[in-house]
Each structure stands twice: as C-alpha cells, then as structure tokens.
Amino acid sequence: MMLAGKVAVVTGAGGGIGREIALAMALAGAKVVVNDIGASLTGQGPTSATPGEQTVQIIAQRGGEAVLNTESVSAWDSAQKIVQAALSAFGRIDIVVNNAGILRDQIFHKMSVEDWRAVIDVHLNGTFYVSRAAAEHFRKQGSGAFVHMTSTSGLIGNFGQANYSAAKLGIAALSKSIALDMQRFGVRSNCIAPFAWSRMTSSIPAETEAEKARVARLQQMTPDKNAPLAVYLASDAAKDVTGQIFAARMNEIFVFSQPRPARSTHRGEGWTPEAIAETAMPALRSAFLPLDRSGDVFSWDPV
C-alpha cells in the first residue's frame, strides 16, 4: 500500500495507460479522481462519460475509492475543476498524473494550424493547466508528486508528428522547470515515456514489413506495464527522485539522458562563416546525432 492515505488525479483515465495507472494507484491505497472526457482519438466528435465510469466501477469492484470527472484538461477553468474534484471528494490532493492526450498525425507540410493547436492544447497546455491548478495546494501542504507522460516521439523523433513531438518534448522541459521551482516545497516532478499498444499507438502505419514488425513489437507491450513505475514515482519511496525522464518498455525501465554539451571547439580570434565551415564543423561532426526515429533507437524485441 505505497500510496495509502494519498489522493491522486489521473487524467485520460478512461482507458489504456491512464486506466491502468488509476487502477494500480487505487490498489496501492490511493483515492483516485478518474478524469476523462470520453472523446475520440482525435478529440473530435461527441464525448461520453462511459469510459471513465467503467474505470471507477472497476476500482470500486476491487475495493478502492474513486470519483469521476469529465472536465477537459485543455482549458484553464476546467483544469481548476479537475483539481477541485479531488478536494471536494477527498479533502486533499497529493498526486497528479498528466496522461490525457489526442493525436492528429500529419506530415509537416500538410499539418493544419487547427491540428497543431488541438494537440498542443491537450498535451502541453493541459499538462501546465492541471499541474498549475494543483501546485498551490502542493506548496501549502509541503508535499506533492507530478508524473507527466512524455514520449520518445519528442525525446527522439518520429514521422508525421510535429505537433505531438513538440508537445511531448515541451512536457519534459516543463517537468524539469516544475522540479526546479518546487523542490523547496517538497514537490517532485518526473516524466515517463510509456511504451504500450493502446488507442494512442493504433494509428501507427503497418504497411511495409519493417512497419509491421514494429507494430508487432508494440502489441506485446500492454498498458499495465507502465503502471508500477507511475505508482513508485508518486510514492514517498521516490522522495529523492525528481526532474528525471524514465521509460517503461515491457519489463525494462530506462532513465534518459538530458541535453548537455557534447563537444566544443574554440578559436581565439573568433569565428567567420568560412572558419566554421573549414574548422568548427569537422571538429564537431563526430558528435552529431543521426535523424533517428524512436523505432530506430528502440529496435530490439521487448522481453
């Protein structure tokens, strides 16, 4: 019962990774606000309370406590209501898991402004709004844990996901800033880059043999594999872990490096464009990174 006595908000908890994290946190003793608007993968069309209700029902059947919230993370006022739901139902808030997300994949030169803004609003702005709404309560009580979902699409790269990749890399930077700003108040902030076959990955193309092989690997990775790491990061057992980026891939757990200078070159008289071309770039080139995608870096079969 690593989370006994704690109250958690899990956004996007109506299915997939969010549902598994909500279930695991309830089993670990937390009271859970299950947040989900029940929208489509693209965030378009009608919404439904049913997915979130199902998660609440499963938690109740297993002896846990949970309430449903159907507010959107993508607006400041509704994000305030998500946090207030925890205070109204359970009297406090200790954990925020920012998991809600949508996808609107498109090759960059065809991506619309609407698709850009929609994904940024849910992922990056939504993570800020919900986190900011909880931050004052965390500060006053001198404790709290944020667990944000980033992605290797942002940390490494992927085709057709400029909006999603930008949002997910932005979340990693936001998490680090939260960790720096709120450490003095006993508040921690970490990221997970989850690997799982879920609604969020079902749009990955599987036309070529290489793409089919990648999808087959993903399908082995069930959403529940990410939940133990989220529970740990939210618990007091992780009281000295903050500002980090982790990944959960089947039975593997990774910690990611974060950008730091890799190599430098110096010229006492300063640089001209010609000198950069002739001297600096040849000296720095061995530290260049290739145009990798997530699947290129995580290319081995999950075990």
TrEMBL record:
<dbReference type="InterPro" id="IPR036291">
    <property type="entry name" value="NAD(P)-bd_dom_sf"/>
</dbReference>
<dbReference type="InterPro" id="IPR051687">
    <property type="entry name" value="Peroxisomal_Beta-Oxidation"/>
</dbReference>
<protein>
    <submittedName>
        <fullName>3-hydroxyacyl-CoA dehydrogenase</fullName>
    </submittedName>
</protein>
<feature type="domain" description="Ketoreductase">
    <location>
        <begin position="6"/>
        <end position="203"/>
    </location>
</feature>
<dbReference type="InterPro" id="IPR020904">
    <property type="entry name" value="Sc_DH/Rdtase_CS"/>
</dbReference>
<comment type="similarity">
    <text>Belongs to the short-chain dehydrogenases/reductases (SDR) family.</text>
</comment>
<dbReference type="InterPro" id="IPR002347">
    <property type="entry name" value="SDR_fam"/>
</dbReference>
<dbReference type="Pfam" id="PF00106">
    <property type="entry name" value="adh_short"/>
</dbReference>
<dbReference type="InterPro" id="IPR057326">
    <property type="entry name" value="KR_dom"/>
</dbReference>
